[in-house]
Amino acid sequence: MDRTGSAPDGTPPAGTAAPGRVRKGRAALVVALRCVTTITILVAAYFLLPFTRHDVDVTNLALGLSAVTAVFALQVRSIARSAHPRLRAVEALTTTMPLFLLMYSAAYFVIEQSAPGSFNESLTRADALYFTLTVFSTVGFGDIVARTEPARILVMTQMVGNVLAVGVATRILFGAVEAAVRRQTSGTRGPG
Fold first, then answer.
1. Secondary structure of the chain as H, E, C letters
2. What is the pLDDT of residues 106-145, one digit of tens each?
3. Can you give the pTM of this predicted structure?
4. Deepest of 87, 88, 159, 191, by most Cβ within 10 A of its Cβ?
5. Is 1.10.287.70 the CATH number for 19-186?
């Protein structure tokens, strides 16, 4: 053992954490805090921002979906460049999925406010979020049902988005993680 207490091969003494594990633990804590903060901000914004009947139309929905896609693309890029790609993938999911779900929840809330009767009951923001999560999880309790054609079309777009989010997006994230891990194990670093 040398002055630092490490063995001649540089390994730390028994009972102490390796520096890499400490860094990874700190990184995991930072990611967890960012995830909780992001979700908290998104949910708070959903409940606090004023939505008007003009906030839901095809253009705004397309812009919202484009924003979710852009955030997702930036997240995939950051995974490929990250020292901790698995942690970045978790963070990407906890950023993108709530944004996607809250966007639909806001759309359901606004469509019910602008065209009462679009659903079989009036939707509060909490009801709209509940309905969104019910559609996302494919549980479909049937207690809230889209009754008008625009509401049903909106629900169908979420159903397609759910399949894409769960299937395609998850595969893209796993691919980015695998590429980053391969890069790290081969000893090369990506740009940036």
1. CCCCCCCCCCCCCCCCCCHHHHHHHHHHHHHHHHHHHHHHHHHHHHHHCCCCHHHCCHHHHHHHHHHHHHHHHHHHHHHHHCCCHHHHHHHHHHHHHHHHHHHHHHHHHHHHHHCCCCECCCCCHHHHHHHHHHHHCCCCCCCCCECCHHHHHHHHHHHHHHHHHHHHHHHHHHHHHHHHHHHHHHCCCCCC
2. 989 988 988 899 999 999 999 999 999 999 988 777 788 8
3. 0.74
4. 88
5. yes
